[in-house]
Amino acid sequence: MRNKLQILITTFFGMLSSLLGTMYVPVLLMVAANIIDYITGLAAAPYRKDGGISSYKSIRGITKKIAMWLLVVVGAIVDQLIAYTTEQLGWNFPVSFLVACLVAVWIICNELISILENIQDIGVALPRWLLPLIKHIKSQAENIGYAEEDEQNED
Protein backbone atom coordinates (compact mmCIF):
# COMPACT_ATOMS: atom_id res chain seq x y z
CA MET A 1 0.00 0.00 0.00
CA ARG A 2 2.79 2.43 0.91
CA ASN A 3 4.55 1.71 -2.38
CA LYS A 4 1.37 2.51 -4.36
CA LEU A 5 0.95 5.78 -2.46
CA GLN A 6 4.54 6.76 -3.24
CA ILE A 7 4.00 5.95 -6.92
CA LEU A 8 0.77 7.98 -6.97
CA ILE A 9 2.37 11.01 -5.29
CA THR A 10 5.46 10.85 -7.51
CA THR A 11 3.32 10.54 -10.63
CA PHE A 12 1.12 13.46 -9.58
CA PHE A 13 4.04 15.80 -8.88
CA GLY A 14 5.88 14.62 -12.00
CA MET A 15 2.85 15.42 -14.16
CA LEU A 16 2.45 18.77 -12.40
CA SER A 17 6.11 19.58 -13.01
CA SER A 18 5.79 18.62 -16.66
CA LEU A 19 2.64 20.68 -17.07
CA LEU A 20 3.85 23.82 -15.27
CA GLY A 21 7.51 23.78 -16.33
CA THR A 22 9.18 26.99 -15.14
CA MET A 23 6.12 27.85 -13.05
CA TYR A 24 6.29 24.62 -11.01
CA VAL A 25 8.21 26.00 -8.01
CA PRO A 26 6.44 29.39 -7.81
CA VAL A 27 3.02 27.73 -8.07
CA LEU A 28 3.86 25.14 -5.40
CA LEU A 29 5.19 27.86 -3.09
CA MET A 30 2.09 29.96 -3.71
CA VAL A 31 -0.30 27.09 -2.97
CA ALA A 32 1.69 26.18 0.15
CA ALA A 33 1.59 29.81 1.32
CA ASN A 34 -2.18 29.93 0.59
CA ILE A 35 -2.80 26.84 2.71
CA ILE A 36 -0.56 28.00 5.57
CA ASP A 37 -2.19 31.46 5.52
CA TYR A 38 -5.66 29.93 5.67
CA ILE A 39 -4.71 27.65 8.57
CA THR A 40 -2.93 30.40 10.54
CA GLY A 41 -5.88 32.72 9.85
CA LEU A 42 -8.23 30.16 11.39
CA ALA A 43 -5.88 29.74 14.35
CA ALA A 44 -5.60 33.52 14.87
CA ALA A 45 -9.34 34.25 14.53
CA PRO A 46 -10.19 33.73 18.23
CA TYR A 47 -7.47 36.20 19.23
CA ARG A 48 -8.81 39.05 17.06
CA LYS A 49 -11.28 41.77 18.01
CA ASP A 50 -13.85 40.72 15.40
CA GLY A 51 -13.80 37.40 17.23
CA GLY A 52 -14.02 34.05 15.71
CA ILE A 53 -14.60 32.07 12.61
CA SER A 54 -17.61 32.38 10.35
CA SER A 55 -18.55 30.40 7.28
CA TYR A 56 -18.90 33.65 5.31
CA LYS A 57 -15.31 34.70 6.12
CA SER A 58 -14.04 31.20 5.35
CA ILE A 59 -15.76 31.04 1.95
CA ARG A 60 -14.58 34.56 1.16
CA GLY A 61 -11.00 33.57 2.08
CA ILE A 62 -11.11 30.52 -0.17
CA THR A 63 -12.57 32.61 -3.00
CA LYS A 64 -9.71 35.09 -2.63
CA LYS A 65 -7.14 32.27 -2.81
CA ILE A 66 -8.70 30.97 -6.03
CA ALA A 67 -8.71 34.51 -7.45
CA MET A 68 -4.98 34.69 -6.65
CA TRP A 69 -4.39 31.58 -8.73
CA LEU A 70 -6.34 33.22 -11.55
CA LEU A 71 -4.02 36.24 -11.35
CA VAL A 72 -1.10 33.91 -12.08
CA VAL A 73 -3.05 32.46 -15.01
CA VAL A 74 -3.59 36.02 -16.31
CA GLY A 75 0.17 36.60 -15.97
CA ALA A 76 0.83 33.39 -17.93
CA ILE A 77 -1.56 34.52 -20.66
CA VAL A 78 0.28 37.85 -20.89
CA ASP A 79 3.55 35.92 -21.11
CA GLN A 80 2.19 33.81 -23.96
CA LEU A 81 1.05 36.95 -25.79
CA ILE A 82 4.53 38.43 -25.40
CA ALA A 83 6.15 35.20 -26.59
CA TYR A 84 3.84 34.96 -29.61
CA THR A 85 4.34 38.61 -30.54
CA THR A 86 8.12 38.52 -30.24
CA GLU A 87 8.21 35.29 -32.27
CA GLN A 88 6.10 36.87 -35.01
CA LEU A 89 8.46 39.85 -35.09
CA GLY A 90 11.44 37.51 -35.38
CA TRP A 91 12.84 38.43 -31.99
CA ASN A 92 14.19 35.92 -29.53
CA PHE A 93 12.64 36.58 -26.12
CA PRO A 94 14.84 34.46 -23.82
CA VAL A 95 12.58 34.48 -20.74
CA SER A 96 9.40 32.46 -20.38
CA PHE A 97 6.70 33.18 -17.81
CA LEU A 98 8.29 36.37 -16.49
CA VAL A 99 5.00 38.12 -15.74
CA ALA A 100 3.43 35.02 -14.20
CA CYS A 101 6.50 34.49 -11.98
CA LEU A 102 6.44 38.12 -10.83
CA VAL A 103 2.73 37.85 -10.03
CA ALA A 104 3.38 34.62 -8.11
CA VAL A 105 6.25 36.19 -6.14
CA TRP A 106 4.05 39.18 -5.30
CA ILE A 107 1.23 36.87 -4.13
CA ILE A 108 3.63 34.72 -2.12
CA CYS A 109 4.95 37.83 -0.37
CA ASN A 110 1.39 38.97 0.41
CA GLU A 111 0.63 35.56 1.84
CA LEU A 112 3.83 35.50 3.89
CA ILE A 113 3.01 38.93 5.32
CA SER A 114 -0.46 37.68 6.22
CA ILE A 115 0.97 34.52 7.80
CA LEU A 116 3.34 36.58 9.93
CA GLU A 117 0.50 38.90 11.00
CA ASN A 118 -1.60 35.84 11.92
CA ILE A 119 1.28 34.46 13.96
CA GLN A 120 1.65 37.82 15.73
CA ASP A 121 -2.08 37.86 16.49
CA ILE A 122 -1.72 34.44 18.09
CA GLY A 123 0.91 35.99 20.36
CA VAL A 124 4.18 34.68 18.94
CA ALA A 125 7.05 37.18 18.71
CA LEU A 126 8.69 37.57 15.32
CA PRO A 127 12.29 38.48 14.51
CA ARG A 128 12.26 42.25 13.97
CA TRP A 129 13.86 41.95 10.53
CA LEU A 130 11.57 39.29 9.03
CA LEU A 131 8.45 41.31 8.18
CA PRO A 132 10.42 44.27 6.73
CA LEU A 133 12.45 41.83 4.59
CA ILE A 134 9.35 40.29 3.05
CA LYS A 135 7.77 43.70 2.52
CA HIS A 136 10.96 44.79 0.73
CA ILE A 137 10.86 41.76 -1.58
CA LYS A 138 7.19 42.51 -2.31
CA SER A 139 7.97 46.14 -3.12
CA GLN A 140 10.75 45.03 -5.48
CA ALA A 141 8.30 42.77 -7.33
CA GLU A 142 5.78 45.64 -7.49
CA ASN A 143 8.32 48.18 -8.70
CA ILE A 144 9.92 46.18 -11.54
CA GLY A 145 7.52 47.57 -14.14
CA TYR A 146 7.70 51.07 -12.68
CA ALA A 147 11.50 51.21 -12.86
CA GLU A 148 11.39 50.58 -16.61
CA GLU A 149 8.58 53.13 -17.01
CA ASP A 150 10.60 55.76 -15.09
CA GLU A 151 13.62 55.17 -17.36
CA GLN A 152 11.46 55.64 -20.46
CA ASN A 153 9.93 58.85 -19.08
CA GLU A 154 13.41 60.31 -18.49
CA ASP A 155 14.28 59.97 -22.22
Provide the fold topology.
Layout lengths: L1 H19 L3 H21 L10 H34 L9 H25 L7 H25 L1
Helix pairs in contact: 2-3, 2-4, 3-4, 4-5
What does this structure look like?
The chain has 155 residues and is mainly α. The chain has one domain (21-145). 80% of the residues lie in helices and 0% in strands. The protein contains 5 helices and no strands. The protein has helices spanning 2-20, 24-44, 55-88, 98-122, 130-154. Helix 3 packs antiparallel against helix 4 (98-122) and helix 4 packs antiparallel against helix 5 (130-154). The longest helix has 34 residues, at 55-88. It is globular. The mean pLDDT is 86.
Give a summary of the structure in a few sentences.
With about 160 residues, the protein is mainly α. The chain is about 80% helix and about 0% strand. The longest helix has about 35 residues, at about 55-90.
Q: Helicity level, as a percent range? A: over 70%
Query: For the CA atoms, what is the radius of gyration?
Result: 19 Å
Number of domains: 1
Characterize the overall form.
globular
Distance between the termini: 66 Å
Helix/strand/pairing category: mainly alpha
What portion of residues belong to β-strands?
under 5%
The helix/strand order is HHHHH
- pLDDT below 50 for ≥5 consecutive residues: which ranges? none
